[in-house]
Design goal:
32% helix, two-stranded antiparallel sheet, 9 strands, 245 residues, alpha/beta
Amino acid sequence: MLVAAAVCPCPPLLVPDVAAGAAPELDSARTACSDALAVLAASRPDRLVVIGPEAGEGLERYPAGSVGDFRGFGVDVRVRLGAGAGAGAGAGAGAGGDRPLPPSLAVGAWLLGRATWADAPVEGLAVGERLAPARCAEAGRELAARAGRVALLVLGDGSACRSVKAPGYFDDRAAAFDERAARALGSADTGALAALDEGLAYELKAAGRAPWQVLAGAAEGAGLEGRLLHEDAPYGVAYFVAAWS
């Protein structure tokens, strides 16, 4: 059963070494992410699943101990998913797998390492950005049934079309889409999350749509309440932080 969830954005710029001189611009987002992770720890879960987007239409699982890095973004920062996550994590973190973590899950591992997470076993799930809403909901229900007390760290950004300098340029539909997403995340409205339009989200480069809909499936019937802790659109990309408990 799902007992808590933290929703965080997943730009590699959250990692200060990646952001370099621009790191202070996301300090408030980092603080909000820490607050959301504290809600997860307080829920005393039996298992934590880190969910993030990747290209494609499938689902890929990553065991505890899976490693990733930010060398593709110009810095030699390495992370490990699981107990002791973070740069230079040592042997108690689990054996891991053969595949490196995708960037979104690497950000999640970095956030957990920063919080020195050791409250429950951790695994990762990468969700294809084009995964159908019904399959997202099904995956969420499967996750919620895997342990008596399940917590989720759900990573994903809103639209990337909020300004002419945004990765997707300016799209006048983006603000309304982000408003709907923020309202749903802040109120734990699973129906509103499930109703987010897959096609529109893809056109607006809103990578969080599929992970959020996995969350919606997992939270069905759980009776959780939500709080929106942070909302901003630096660089023309919408970032949300929310806590459900």
